[in-house]
Amino acid sequence: MGLLFVEVLPRDATGGADVLQCRRCRVDAASVGAILSRDFQGRIGRTYLFNRVVNITLGPNENRNFRTGLHTVNDISCICCQEILGWRYVSYNDIFSSASNDHCLIF
Ligand SMILES: [Zn+2]
């Protein structure tokens, strides 16, 4: 295995309360400032829509049925421990007017 480059997100004065991390290995995944919406619901609870996430790998494209219809998504996994963190929309029917194809949901 080659070198693994991990991006460390900037912290606020409190030391990191504004950074979300992988629940297993604690590598940085997203900044609270990158949250576009807190109004999404996943299979296991509340999810957040981000416009930028870091330290992830993408799974294959899959078609999934959501309450809003059929969407093509990729699972996103932690680059360090491969824990599944959420999913990324590959395409959708413009239901999420504030989202683009690069936006990710993390639970
Ligand atoms: Zn991890």
UniProtKB/TrEMBL annotation:
Signal peptide: none
Any Pfam family: Yippee-Mis18
GO molecular function, one term: metal ion binding
Domain Yippee: 18-107
Superkingdom of the organism of origin: Eukaryota
Keywords assigned: Metal-binding, Zinc
Family: Belongs to the yippee family.
Protein name: Protein yippee-like
Lineage, broadest ranks: Eukaryota, Viridiplantae, Streptophyta, Embryophyta, Tracheophyta
